[in-house]
């Protein structure tokens, strides 16, 4: 395999890991608002992700770092073009990270209420905006001959990219609901199951619409992209069946697969481009013209081959370590 | 202000603020790991209470450090896209390695440490804080590797056709001689911060306890003993850090004189080449090369700092400017002299004062003594601020001293900016970050003070040192020993 293809694949894997892992902790953040009935329930939700959310977030840091190292042109062009959306994401993630740690470190109700709002907004904004950005990669941007963005807001926020944002937000919500059903006991667990059942159809419809639109953008959609779309829709259906039968573990695996299927569709539709130009196809960025030198890719491959599996192993160990379900009775 | 000025301010503000938290985290993670190790070994409750007390301060700080670090990785692309294009092939590699090799370790294992009290076997729990501490060191190494490339580019070749730098030797980048001196210098400086915090907090409690024995919390006698130990650990850490900073700083000065002579000439505002060159402790004047109004000079000291010999020749700004014009074409190749001159002195002064306070603390606590004077409280209040400020001045010096270069000798700062970004966009984000960072710095100080003020936490009987839960145990409904 070409080393540029390998790195495109690896970056797709890192984004998939990010969307699947932080996806559910965004979902849990979204549930803290209406779903949680009181402060104790809110704390149960927050503590289901307490030990793991920070490790989940590193996936995006690695995805972005790997893009910088392997495709510097892609990183430079996209990050300067998506300046303000990224600013929103950064502000949201900063607030959210502080909120988890600081919420319990004050003792008035208003202190907690403010941080609760930050958790909600801090989860909603990145869950939505990352979808807008990833869909934007598939859609392309007006780039000049130097690969610089020459458009405005209307090029970043289009019906297609907005739908992309709705998709990542909806997936995060469903995935997070499955996770809460899997990780809690008692009333919260029962309500999470019920909510998941109600969410499945609307989320499935939004996903199917977006994935079909993604496939139809191409005159000759790739088979891999089509397969990803099918897996996604099937996984949402399977998740609904599993949760209805009280199999929360399988339901969670199903939304994991749905996130992965969505990512496969997007990245397969993108490849071999990384950021096409809507002005002139020659101005677009591809895995070939956006990549680092062979030497850099080789060095990075030697680093990634042992360490990506190592990270997967120790991160899985953490999930195993904290596998116990929690409920309101566990909150001190 | 144009895009360039705004982007520079943004980088300066976000980086300096981020670097308040980084040295704190690095050193405190190690100090807490040491405290927990001693507890495991001695089983003395005092050490467990110290671990939990300072562990809380570590976590308050780590949270801000992590989230402000996110901004760093993004803003190279957002504000400095031409820089990212030019050096991405070289510069991206250490950043990606940092994420993959170091940052996962820190973030994953600190989560286990926070929630693992009483839930996982104690030895594994102890290992997680050591892994976290080790991860912070590794992070620092890779980030400084990227920074050192900007100070002294090595291991690359310029691809004329593509107009960018290409990595040719990763080993050269990871063993850059600037990196090899900057890394220990930065780490020793970081230890001054953590040691300063531990010593200051402990001293504050001791002085308060000594002056008002009545309003001490229950269990105060053992608090006193524990805080006295903590004070001495903190003071020794500051001193070791200080000695390390001085030694590595001296070596770094010599390496810098070799690779960036303009930076060192600007540190002294030395306009004319001199042999031997004096070092001025203090100067009243404009530092623009005209005669200073008043200056206290130590003869031959700059020669020694720069070259290791008391009569070595140190090149002046004017000669270097002429050399650079010949090499790189017309332009101004000197940084902002008052900034470099004063930040260099402030860095040294802050570190020196912190060392003196630590020395006095050891003296004042000799043979079971406890200081009680109001001066001890004042010293405690300024002690953590001094090394923090020293770290900040050091970074401002080293980054401003590199100007006008973004990558020394290869790319000027104005060429690295994102061409497609408007001044309005950067202004909006600069304003947002400034407000947010001011808010979170205030919050950080508020929470640190708030959690440092009560005495050591009670650890019996449900304080979390119990044996780990068994999932199938009858008490499966017992509350978590730690929860957010």
UniProtKB/TrEMBL annotation, chain A:
GO terms for biological process: aerobic electron transport chain. NCBIfam families: cydB. This is Cytochrome d ubiquinol oxidase subunit II. It comes from the Bacteria. PANTHER family: CYTOCHROME BD-I UBIQUINOL OXIDASE SUBUNIT 2, CYTOCHROME BD2 SUBUNIT II. One of its GO terms (molecular function) is electron transfer activity. It comes from Jiangella mangrovi. One of its GO terms (cellular component) is cytochrome complex. Its EC number is 1.10.3.-.
TrEMBL record, chain B:
Keywords: Cell membrane, Electron transport, Heme, Iron, Membrane, Metal-binding, Oxidoreductase, Transmembrane, Transmembrane helix, Transport. It is a multi-pass membrane protein. It is found in: Cell membrane. One of its GO terms (biological process) is aerobic electron transport chain. Coiled coil: none annotated. Its EC number is 1.10.3.-. Residues 466-475 have a biased composition (Acidic residues). Its main location: membrane. The chain crosses the membrane at residues 12-33, 53-71, 91-115, 127-146, 187-208, 229-247, 342-363, 375-397, 426-449. Residues 459-484 are annotated as: Disordered. GO terms for molecular function: electron transfer activity; heme binding; metal ion binding; oxidoreductase activity, acting on diphenols and related substances as donors, oxygen as acceptor. InterPro entries: Cyt-d_ubiquinol_oxidase_su_1. GO terms for cellular component: cytochrome complex; plasma membrane. Belongs to the cytochrome ubiquinol oxidase subunit 1 family. This is Cytochrome d ubiquinol oxidase subunit I. It comes from Jiangella mangrovi. The lineage of its organism: Bacteria, Bacillati, Actinomycetota, Actinomycetes, Jiangellales.
């Amino acid at each position: 395999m070409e080393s540029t293809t390998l790195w495109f694949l690896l970056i797709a894997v890192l984004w998939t890991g990010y969307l699947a892992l932080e996806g559910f902790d965004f979902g849990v953040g979204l549930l803290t608002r209406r779903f949680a009935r009181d402060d104790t329930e809110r704390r149960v939700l927050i503590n289901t992700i307490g030990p793991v959310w920070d490790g989940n977030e590193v996936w995006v840091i690695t995805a972005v770092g790997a893009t910088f190292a392997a495709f510097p042109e892609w990183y430079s062009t996209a990050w300067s073009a998506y300046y303000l959306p990224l600013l929103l994401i950064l502000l949201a993630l900063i607030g959210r990270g502080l909120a988890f740690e600081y919420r319990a470190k004050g003792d008035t109700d208003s202190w907690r209420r403010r941080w609760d709002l930050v958790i909600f907004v801090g989860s909603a904004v990145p869950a939505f905006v990352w979808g807008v950005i990833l869909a934007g990669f598939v859609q392309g941007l007006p780039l000049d001959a130097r690969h610089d963005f020459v458009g405005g807001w209307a090029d970043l926020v289009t019906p297609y990219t907005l739908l992309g944002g709705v998709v990542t937000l909806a997936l995060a919500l469903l995935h997070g609901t499955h996770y809460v059903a899997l990780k809690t006991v008692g009333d919260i667990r029962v309500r999470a199951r019920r909510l998941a059942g109600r969410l499945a159809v609307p989320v499935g419809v939004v996903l199917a619409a977006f994935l079909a639109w993604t496939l139809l953008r191409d005159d000759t959609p790739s088979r891999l992209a089509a397969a990803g779309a099918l897996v996604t829709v099937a996984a949402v259906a399977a998740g609904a069946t599993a949760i209805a039968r009280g199999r929360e573990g399988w339901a969670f695996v199903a939304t994991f697969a749905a996130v992965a299927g969505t990512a496969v569709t997007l990245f397969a539709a993108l490849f071999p481009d990384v950021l096409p130009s809507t002005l002139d196809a020659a101005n677009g960025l591809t895995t070939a013209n956006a990549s680092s030198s062979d030497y850099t890719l080789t060095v990075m491959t030697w680093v990634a081959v042992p360490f990506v599996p190592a990270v997967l192993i120790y991160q899985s160990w953490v999930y195993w370590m904290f596998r116990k379900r929690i409920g309101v009775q566990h909150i001190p | 202000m144009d895009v360039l000025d705004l982007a520079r301010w943004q980088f300066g503000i976000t980086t300096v603020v981020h670097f308040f938290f980084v040295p704190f985290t690095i050193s405190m993670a190690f100090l807490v790991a040491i405290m927990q190790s001693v507890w495991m070994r001695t089983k003395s409750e005092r050490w467990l209470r110290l671990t939990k007390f300072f562990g809380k301060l570590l976590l308050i700080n780590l949270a801000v450090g992590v989230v402000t670090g996110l901004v760093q990785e993004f803003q190279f692309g957002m504000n400095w896209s031409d820089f990212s294009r030019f050096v991405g092939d070289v510069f991206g590699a250490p950043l990606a390695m940092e994420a993959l090799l170091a940052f996962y370790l820190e973030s994953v294992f600190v989560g286990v440490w926070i929630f693992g009290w009483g839930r996982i076997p104690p030895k594994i729990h102890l290992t997680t804080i050591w892994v976290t501490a080790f991860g912070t060191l590794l992070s620092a190494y890779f980030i400084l590797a990227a920074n050192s490339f900007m100070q002294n580019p090595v291991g690359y070749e310029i691809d004329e056709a593509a107009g960018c730098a290409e990595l040719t030797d990763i080993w050269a980048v990871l063993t850059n001689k600037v990196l090899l001196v900057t890394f220990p210098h930065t780490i020793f400086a970081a230890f001054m911060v953590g040691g300063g915090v531990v010593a200051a907090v402990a001293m504050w409690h001791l002085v308060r306890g000594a002056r008002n024995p009545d309003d001490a919390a229950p269990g105060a006698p053992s608090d006193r003993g524990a805080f006295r130990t903590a004070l001495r650990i903190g003071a020794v850490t500051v001193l070791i850090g200080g000695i390390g900073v001085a030694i590595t700083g001296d070596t770094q000065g010599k390496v810098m004189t070799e690779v960036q002579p303009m930076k060192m000439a600007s540190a002294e505002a030395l306009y004319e080449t001199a042999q031997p060159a004096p070092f001025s402790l203090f100067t009243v004047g404009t530092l623009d090369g005209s005669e200073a109004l008043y200056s206290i000079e130590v003869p031959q000291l700059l020669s020694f700092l720069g070259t290791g010999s008391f009569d070595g020749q140190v090149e002046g700004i004017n000669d270097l400017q002429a050399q650079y014009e010949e090499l790189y074409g017309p332009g101004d190749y000197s940084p902002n002299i008052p900034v470099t001159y004063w930040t260099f002195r402030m860095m040294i002064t802050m570190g020196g004062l912190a060392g003196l306070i630590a020395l006095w603390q050891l003296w004042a606590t000799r043979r079971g003594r406890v200081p009680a004077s109001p001066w001890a409280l004042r010293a405690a209040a300024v002690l953590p601020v001094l090394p923090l400020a020293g770290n900040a001045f050091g970074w401002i010096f080293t980054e401003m001293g590199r100007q006008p270069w973004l990558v020394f000798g290869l790319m000027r700062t104005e060429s690295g900016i994102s061409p497609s970004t408007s001044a309005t966009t950067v202004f909006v984000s600069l304003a947002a970050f400034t407000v947010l960072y001011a808010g979170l710095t205030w919050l950080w100080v508020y929470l640190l003070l708030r959690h440092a003020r009560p005495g050591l936490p009670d650890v019996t009987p449900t304080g979390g040192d119990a044996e780990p839960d068994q999932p199938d145990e009858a008490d499966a409904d017992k509350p978590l020993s730690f929860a957010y």
